[in-house]
Design goal:
Distance between the termini: 46 Å
Largest sheet: 2 strands, antiparallel
Number of domains: 2
Strand order of the largest sheet: 1-2
Oligomer: single chain
Shape: extended
Number of strands: 4
Amino acid sequence: MVEQPRCGFCTHTVSHGIGQFARGAVHTNSLEGFWSQVKRSISGTHHSVSKKWLQNYVNEFAFRYNRRKAFASMFSHIVAKAGERHVEAA
């Protein structure tokens, strides 16, 4: 089932209730992998995170996860983006 675009994303669903865990390229493995990495990072590196800062940590992990297969280094990407913002602000 394809839902209407929300926040710029088209979403698909699987129905775990009827034993469906994948439908072609639609599955939950990536999402489960992401949250597993977030939980391991928080407990392994940060040990705990307050509710106040949790969204900031999740945003950072999402940034890293979405670029995990990128050719350019994450540092180069961040420096380039920082330069773009500086030019736009001037």
